[in-house]
Amino acid sequence: MYRITMLLLANALIVCSSNAITFTSLTSGNWSSGSSWDQLGSIPSASDNVIIEDNHLITINSSQECNDLNINLGGELEVQSGASLNCYHNLLINEGTFTMIGGELNSGNAKSETFTNYGGTFNFSGGELNIAGRFRQYIATSVSSLSGSGIINVSTADAQTVSSRNNFEVTNGSFSVASGSSLQIILKNGNSTTKEEIYYSPQTSEFNGGSFIVENGTGLSDIYLDLDMPIYGLESKVGTSAILHLNSDCSFTLWELTITTGMLHVNVGAQISISNSLTTNDSLIINSTASGNGSLIPLGSVSGNVIVERYIQGYSSSIDGWHEISSPVDAMTIDGSDFDPSSNDDLYSWSENGNTWLNHKIPANDITEFTNGTGYLVSYENNITGQFMGSLNISDITYTNLSSGSGSGWHLLGNPFCSAISWNDGNWNLSGTAGVAKVWSESNGNYEDIDANENIPMSNGFFVQVTSGSNNIKIPASSRVHDNVVNNYKTDVCSMAETIDIKISNNQNHFSDETKVGFSADATYEWDSKFDSRKLYGNAMAPQLYTISMNEEFSTNYLPYDSQSLQLHLIPGTNGDFVLSFGNMKSFDVGASIFLEDRHTGNLVDVVKDSIYNFQALQGDPTDRFILHFYGITSLFDESSSSMNVYTNNDKIFIQVSPSVDQHKTIAIYDITGRLCYSKEVMTDKNISINNQFDNGVYIVVISMEERTIFRKIIIN
User: Fold this and answer.
1) Beta strands 644-649 and 688-691: pairing type?
2) Which pLDDT score, from 0 to 100, does residue 661 have?
3) Is pLDDT at 383 greater than 70 in this prediction?
4) Do 571 and 511 form a contact (C-beta atoms < 8 A)?
């Protein structure tokens, strides 16, 4: 059936011209020899169709022409140096082999016809291939092997006649350009609907030499490339009034990128790395919108200036609209730029020494230009897409001995590159500096903790806390990563083992907050700068969620394996209905239990089984409303602990205690839904019995003492 399909396709191409004669190869030989064909000693002319059959090798060493050309399974065509072939319609490598070792091939009608590798082999080692239409390869068995020096020129009269077509389209098979090749693939015009010039997505291919050169004819002012595989070099020559777009799904590495004429845009979503050289001619723009950013990582030299956009949403009220930004170009003057604040806008830098924000509008503050590696706080009345213009920073930025004064050591730094960066990924050489950073989330109205290996977006500010006056922070170029995340949002990675993520939100506004609690053998009750983070407060209308340990407030709090109860504090920020959600439960051992105790309502919730807790809160409520209880995680929670044992016998519940256990206790019993079924304070160091007045089921017995709380599960039958 497959072979029949191939033949039907070949026949479909043959009937394109009703007056054409079909020449079919009879044997191997020269194109110019009549004995090679089945048409009584004649050779093909411009109006004739040609089929090269199995086991026949046809060579061309002079000037020849035809209308349609099919190279069928097992057939071969070779264009030799100094020869030429004009194929005025379609050329189809229909599972056969086409080889150019020099010479010239002209194929197509300059509008919609194709040079198609349909499951065959295309070998190119020199010469000039001019395709007046498009190059197409889309069958898994197709192989294109290119080497040496030559030109493949693909162009149309204006634009493709079918909206789904691209000038250069490789969607399957193998397409490889050998290392050291000087091959040029020149593309001109494209598609008037989708605007795509290249669609290159072979999964088994290599592009180790040569370059794509994109030119523009009369048809288009915007040309789009759609690539997801590496190519070697790219040169834009689209003309002074045109734009070459690297489309949103472009993700590849170039050896070099050169902009000769026109503009080149790295669209939102595109991820481009350049290994050797970038020559911009001041015509490169990295785009930013409300949906994210483009991303560029130059690993070699950069020549010329660039424009890096930063989209900033305007404020809608007095409680929103704040953003922390940074510049990927150095020493750009603020006055007169897109970021220059008008009368209803603001731009600040942060002073740790003064523990205050410094206003750009006050000359004495001397905030005149953006400095690489520094963060700034801005707010604008209207949405803007500001442009950072200048020379790209591609080098490390290092800070030493930042102050640790009245601002508690908090410093607002900035991502100095035109891509995201991976925080604390092993390349930062942090010393005297906390291992958790913070990014402002405008939508949440709060700071989000950035753990090791989480990403900080392009052109984003971030806070770090130094632990002493002797410190070192290197923002390394080696930590650049592609991440098109929307600004003011971090990219999450998995938390450390045995870590619970807790989020608070409400039904009154869009603000929320998050906190994290975990356990580590390296942790202490105090601030562990390696993985703890102290609380930074956000918007006054946003809920604030944090834990307290050793009288310090934490947004990320890791504890040693001898902890069992922890206060969870909440400042509501507004009156209303609230939701606590608990995540990352799978990081705990399967036998662990985690309970949330609501001291206001008396509810006890098993958050491993029910990760959502709904409640009401008012401004002014006591902040220490909740307690987190961890059971089955550390030795103190081990049910085999000899300090206390709980069991049932007949119509009694017995609590056996060791003599050293505190006398003052509160005993509470909850059912599996968290409903309080029994509560009593006792003053005894002796065994306790309780009448069994409960229905059959699973219950949690909570024994609260002055220094600790112990949990036990019991089953009543």
Assistant:
1) unpaired
2) 63
3) yes
4) no
